[in-house]
Design goal:
This protein has 403 residues and is mostly helical. The protein is globular and about 70 Å long.
């Protein structure tokens, strides 16, 4: 108790103290404090005050994992406490664990520090492979050794259809070996960085392609032993005529926009938004973020009633995880107005009307006139929903009547 009373309210000191002193703690704000620390660490890692080359993809995405895991742990703890209050004769053991810093927080059985060491270990395995085969440091041979360790020895692979959000969290992919294309690319980039080899990437159609940085692009497409260096890194999509990757050449490669570290983190976050929203809305077939805007044009739409009597049912935890990913992406892309619109719509589904009005109003200020005209009546109705919500919170019954 004395430790809690003496905590300083400076954010970093306060949060760090909470992490250091609470073990199986009844303190109700424990998980919220962990959430704050994780978001703060993520924001510091991707800060625009830092040079892009100094940003660690692995650290940033592990902080994302830590925040989301802390949120889900918070929900589990609430469920356990609720069960205990319902069954007073039942003792429910807390799953809270002691750790002295965010980097020591357990994620899938390992801490953030240990997952970073795991990437170091993979790089050491590549070096051992090169030594065992008495291979030098030629670029092709190094990349073939990376492929051998990642995709044969370790068995990393892409799922045929990306449905499970776990395949989009770095610690889960390192643990299971199954991950989205962007997460596998990030692991590839991080391992090569530890081998002092710079690998860059760019979005091409639906694919995110990577290749070693080279002053001689022709070398990447020179076919040796049946495949090119570009093919060694990117796999089958390079030979798939349905993929835009198959159309690339040394000339077109130089015209691609190289993704920055912030861009790559943004792609990973955008994937999380899509996956969590898809899971959140799964019980409402056909429900999209923009569905509530259809009544302006189509009064027969089944999602047309936004007065609260016909509110679409969405999974609250998945919706909140989508909103959290959107919040992080807005830190990276504060002037992405379409993202701000989508964020506002997710807040609407979460019934956070005041915050939704704020985000959608910002978007309307920069939107084309036609889109702003569609949103305006919707935002006005959100104002009424916010007033009605406040009305009911004061104990009044029935709908709020506006003359």
């Amino acid at each position: 108790m004395r430790k809690h009373k003496n905590r300083r309210l400076s954010f970093s000191t306060w949060a760090s103290s909470a992490l250091a002193t609470m073990r199986n703690s009844p303190h109700p704000n424990f998980h919220q404090e962990v959430l704050k620390v994780a978001r703060e660490k993520f924001t510091q890692e991707i800060s625009f005050q830092s040079k892009d080359k100094d940003i660690s993809l692995a650290k940033a995405l592990l902080y994302v994992s830590a925040e989301d895991e802390a949120f889900m742990a918070f929900n589990r703890e609430k469920d356990a406490r609720s069960l205990q209050s319902e069954r007073r004769d039942t003792s429910v053991k807390s799953n809270a664990q002691e750790y002295d810093s965010l980097e020591a927080m357990p994620l899938g059985g390992k801490s953030i520090r240990e997952w970073l060491i795991e990437l170091d270990t993979i790089a050491e395995e590549v070096k051992a492979e090169l030594v065992s085969r008495d291979i030098g440091c030629h670029l092709v041979e190094v990349l073939e050794a990376v492929n051998l360790v990642l995709f044969k020895s370790r068995g990393f692979n892409r799922p045929p259809v990306l449905i499970n959000p776990k395949n989009s969290y770095l610690h889960s992919v390192l643990s299971s070996g199954c991950g989205s294309a962007i997460l596998l690319s990030i692991i590839y980039i991080e391992v090569c960085r530890r081998l002092h080899l710079t690998v860059v990437g760019s979005r091409v159609g639906e694919e995110f392609l990577i290749w070693p940085q080279s002053g001689n692009p022709e070398e990447l497409f020179k076919v040796t032993s049946g495949h090119s260096l570009f093919g060694v890194v990117n796999g089958r999509c390079v030979d798939d005529p349905r993929s835009k990757a198959s159309d690339l050449s040394s000339n077109s490669l130089s015209g691609l926009d190289i993704a920055t570290n912030r861009d790559i983190i943004g792609i990973a976050l955008a994937n999380l938004i899509r996956l969590h929203w898809k899971r959140a809305s799964r019980s409402n077939h056909g429900l999209m973020l923009m569905s509530p805007l259809r009544p302006v044009c189509d009064g027969n739409d089944k999602f047309s009633n936004i007065d609260g009597s016909n509110f679409p049912l969405v999974r609250p935890q998945d919706l909140r995880l989508a909103i959290m990913a959107s919040e992080r992406l807005l830190i990276l892309q504060p002037h992405n107005w379409a993202l701000r619109r989508d964020h506002g719509m997710m807040l609407y589904y979460s019934r956070e009307y005041e915050a939704a009005v704020q985000e959608l109003s910002i978007y309307m200020a920069f939107a084309p006139e036609e889109e702003a005209g569609i949103l305006e009546p919707f935002v006005e109705k959100l104002h009424l929903l916010r007033l009605e919500s406040s009305w009911k919170s004061l104990g009044h019954k029935g709908p709020l009547r506006v003359p």
